[in-house]
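Give me the fold.
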Amino acid sequence: MSVYTELSQQDVERLLSAYDLGQLVSFAGVSAGIENTNYRVTLSRGGIHTTYFLTLFEILSHGDLNFFVPLLAHLSQKGCLVAGPMRRMDGDFVFTIKHKPAALFQCLSGGHIEHIHAIHCRTVGIELAKIHLAAHDFEQQHENARGFYWVQKQIQKGELGTQAGVQPELEQALAQIKPAWQRISEMDAPKGFIHADLFPDNCLFADDESISGVIDFYAGGFDYWMYDIAVTVLAWCKDNGTFSAEKVTAIMSGYQSIRPFTDHEKACFLDFLKLACLRFWLSRLVAAKESGDSLNPEKNPKEMQQLWGWLSHPNPLETLTI
């Protein structure tokens, strides 16, 4: 249950008094997410009921949210399928309640899909390209917290790998990635805001094919766009220890229908896919360390370890269209 901070009806009515959105009809905690407290809040105005999503951020700071929440407003205004924040009458998006930063958002329709097909991958690629382009003129900047240098630091520390018994494998992986990162750094590949965590549980679908919203942008930051594409391919196209060529092609073609790749991006896609795989291998080792026996089986680090092994083979992507 994702209600770490309890709110009373009086608390909710008090925070709603800062908006001009209507009268409270109902509110209820939402069992979604693992880091924040979430409430579904229904208001009535002129006889019309509208539902919003209230989030109390248990970990992120006001400083972080002063980037992410205005970014979501910017993306919403540009027509991206995101939950736009609601502006208070004082002009702010973020406020404090029970000593926690909080914000009120539009409530997106739709739900998660159970079975991923190529049509889903194509629509995800299209929406990701739209997000990249829409965020490009957002004035603020926030570094990606889990890019190459985070990966390098975690492996060099050795704590995660030693505990999981995979430190030699991680060191070998880093030895592969370091020269690739040097090549990437010398290229003129485009950068901008990246979502950095566009897995299926962060995407809502209104029906079998249509995306209704992309959520959970709080792992994002400034980095190479192709890194974000690689994360998305890793998330949507893995298939029993390899990748589905049909799904990879669908993401790539969907994305390029909005923004074609540069030659430099095409040249370094495999390197970014390896970096993405290594990043989530490490992220899942972090989660395993923190959660112990309660680790979600869908977040098993061994899955990423297996994918890394496949990506390390000669020409693993020769059957894919990029």
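Residues 269-291 form the longest helix (23 residues).
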